[in-house]
Amino acid sequence: DGGITQSPKYLFRKEGQNVTLSCEQNLNHDAMYWYRQDPGQGLRLIYYSQIVNDFQKGDIAEGYSVSREKKESFPLTVTSAQKNPTAFYLCASSSSGGPYEQYFGPGTRLTVT
Amino acid sequence: SQELEQSPQSLIVQEGKNLTINCTSSKTLYGLYWYKQKYGEGLIFLMMLQKGGEEKSHEKITAKLDEKKQQSSLHITASQPSHAGIYLCGAPPGNAGNMLTFGGGTRLMVKP
């Protein structure tokens, strides 16, 4: 079945540690996205990539980094520089040639203490 | 930048009742996407509206796009407990491309 997988579902880290969230898709989509969702709020864009080996900052990129070495994979690293990393993180992908609906993974809930 | 405001922010309805959720944009809408999210899960794509006046239905959910009002509405007929969740609207910030800006979501509870 085609889709997007994110792992792990739950992640716990100590403050000051970097952590990498995995996102894999087998939909053959060129574009991939990372969003952050805080309780009771909508989605905020962290980073996006329209093509392999290229990515751009979204609205809240500070304290995060990404890579896009393969079309199927778009891992997100939450660094120790991110002041409030505890949140629900969602990965999505879409076609770059239309239609443009984004397909989402199940999310990773990160808790930093 | 474009902002999407959803109303109401939360809604509790009795099973069997109809309800409407609105999504209003601060700028011209070039399309509108509706998603549903169960708590702690990813977003499920519901419908995409591309043209002013367009209306789409899926089962008991109908969405309309009013380009002049820069608004979209999502209407659920005869609500069921399975309709409970968070509904989010998303829209492209311009008339091209695949980026989306999302509204803050409407949390729906359906009382049996």
Could you spell the SSE succession of chain B in H and E letters?
EEEEEEEEEEE
Q: What is the global morphology of chain A?
A: globular
Poorly predicted runs of chain B are: none
The major sheet of chain A is characterized as: 7 strands, mixed
Beginning-to-end CA distance, first to last residue of chain A: 36 Å
Tally of alpha and pi helices of chain B: 0
- Kindly state the percentage of residues in helix of chain B: under 10%
- What class do helices, strands and sheet pairing of chain A give? mainly beta
Strand content of chain A: over 45%
pLDDT averaged over residues of chain B: 92
Descriptive labels:
heterodimer; A: 113 residues; mainly beta; seven-stranded mixed beta sheet; four-stranded antiparallel beta sheet; 0% helix; globular; B: 112 residues; six-stranded mixed beta sheet; five-stranded antiparallel beta sheet
Structural commentary:
- The complex is a heterodimer of chains A (113) and B (112).
- Chain A has 113 residues and is mainly β.
- Chain A has no helices and eleven strands.
- In chain A, a hairpin with a 2-residue loop joins β5 and β6 (54-57).
- In chain B, a hairpin with a 2-residue loop joins β6 (55-58) and β7.
- The mean pLDDT of chain B is 92.
- Chain B is mainly β and 112 residues long.
- In chain B, the strands form two sheets. In chain B, strands 2, 4, 5, 9, 10 and 11 form a six-stranded mixed β-sheet that branches. In chain B, strands 1-3-8-7-6 form a five-stranded antiparallel β-sheet, with no helix packed on it.
- The interface between A and B is medium-sized, with 28 and 24 residues.
What is shown here, in short?
The complex is a heterodimer of chains A (113) and B (112). By secondary structure, chain A is mainly β.
